[in-house]
Design goal:
Layout: E1 2-10, E2 20-27, E3 30-38, H1 42-61, H2 66-76, E4 88-96, E5 100-106, E6 112-115, E7 118-120, E8 125-128, E9 136-143, E10 149-153, H3 155-158, H4 172-186, H5 192-205, E11 216-224, E12 228-233, H6 242-250, E13 255-259, H7 261-271, E14 276-278, E15 289-291, E16 297-299, H8 302-313, H9 323-332, E17 336-341, H10 361-374, E18 379-384
Parallel strand pairs: 12-13, 12-17, 13-16, 17-18
Antiparallel strand pairs: 1-11, 2-3, 3-4, 4-5, 5-9, 6-7, 6-10, 8-9, 10-11, 14-15
Helix pairs in contact: 1-2, 4-5, 6-7, 8-9, 8-10
């Protein structure tokens, strides 16, 4: 199974920093996830939640048992002298691809577990702090099945709408559950990215004037078969290998993209598939798309890849509908992405008239791969041909 995970957040109204912090790491058949909620809001809360989440992630990644790691943090977090509560709360998950998941929660709303349109529950093992006797942590050991989902949120989501006419006590955990079940009923295969965003947006929508009174964070985990994708960019180093790699591209089981006019011409020639130009209304400064039967996306090469790298590194609020924006969407809608990168020298990459920041294809693809793995939690492989 593939563990599809993503998160979405809204800042508290009139704040410049998120008071909640989400961190994750995919490594050796497992994924570690932490959501921390810092005390208050703004910069102070951001620092506290970032420190908590980062330390927990590093502890668990280094081999600490999740209970031991979370106990260390629980016993270390000081109490605010004014509000008499912990400087931050957290939810931590250590999930394996076989479905085994260990969950630890301290102070955050209890997670939501769905299976086939139903809510599942499980008993927690309670751990009381040896230093702060009024502080308890819940430990869960569960076994996920294909198509199961886990939802984690900060109390900004469950408290959304608090004091309004329709939700005097706030949205509550049941309100989040109701929205999630309805959303899954409408779209059972919705991605974690879409589900976390729509749930966070819903929580914001019930706030008075749609102005968040607290930071809102929603994390979604989805156990399913991976969505595979292949990106072919750059012609192979040896012309004699063109046919071999063209057939490997053709026989790949998943979505397929070509980045580069020369690469598209190689595939077209070897597989006898014509290439057609596709005029985009929002092409911007980038070359237009191309079309080929049996290929999901065909773009120009280095310019489009470089712009896609910018969009991934500094995501715009609305990703443009140009070729790079569509390539980013192709990446984000996939789980396991294989790159076939041709090593043949292309003199145009060294044209002095091109922008100084323009890098050769190999380096750009390396940076995209690293971002997709570390920031977007994808599985990426690189094959140089």
């Amino acid at each position: 199974m593939f563990v599809d995970i993503d998160a979405f957040q809204h800042k508290k109204h009139n704040q410049n920093a998120y008071g909640d912090y989400f961190a994750s790491k995919r490594t050796q058949g497992r994924i570690i996830v932490v959501l921390s909620d810092g005390l208050g809001s703004g910069i102070k809360a951001n620092i506290l939640s970032c420190m908590t989440a980062t330390m927990l992630l590093k502890f668990i990644e280094a081999g600490y048992d999740i209970q031991k790691a979370c106990e260390i943090i629980m016993n270390s977090l000081p109490v605010c002298k004014v509000r008499k509560i912990s400087y931050s709360t957290f939810s931590a998950v250590d999930c394996r691809e076989d479905g085994t998941a260990l969950i630890a929660e301290e102070g955050n709303p209890k997670f939501i577990w769905t299976r086939k349109g139903n809510i599942l529950d499980t008993q927690a093992y309670i751990v009381t702090s040896k230093i702060f006797l009024n502080r308890q942590m819940q430990i869960y050991n569960i076994k996920l099945e294909p198509l199961d989902r886990l939802i984690f949120c900060s109390d900004g989501a469950t408290h959304a709408g608090l004091g309004t006419k329709d939700l005097k006590m706030g949205l509550g955990r049941n309100g989040v559950i109701g929205f999630v079940l309805n959303r899954l009923c409408d779209n059972p295969d919705i991605s974690s990215r879409e589900l976390s965003k729509s749930a966070a947006d819903f929580a914001l929508s019930v706030e008075e004037g749609k102005k968040a009174k607290d930071d809102i964070s929603v994390v979604s985990i989805y156990m399913r078969n991976p969505r595979r994708a292949l990106v072919f960019t750059g012609p192979p180093y040896r012309d004699s290998q063109d046919g071999f790699y063209a057939n490997a591209f053709k026989n790949f089981n998943g979505k397929k993209a070509i980045c580069g006019g020369t690469t598209a011409n190689v595939i077209s020639r070897e597989l006898n598939i014509p290439v057609r130009s596709k005029i985009l209304f929002h092409s911007g400064s980038l070359p237009n798309l191309m079309e080929m039967d049996g290929v999901d996306l065909v773009t120009e090469g280095i310019l489009t890849l470089t712009r896609a790298l910018e969009y991934l590194e500094y995501p715009p609020y609305d990703t443009p509908e140009d070729a790079a924006g569509r390539l980013v969407k192709f990446f984000l809608e996939s789980d396991c992405i294989d790159f076939m990168v041709g090593a043949k020298f292309n003199p145009s990459h060294y044209d002095p008239s091109l922008p100084v920041e323009l890098e050769i294809r190999k380096n750009v693809v390396k940076k995209i791969s690293k971002l997709l793995e570390e920031k977007y939690i994808k599985k990426v492989t690189l094959q140089y041909i």
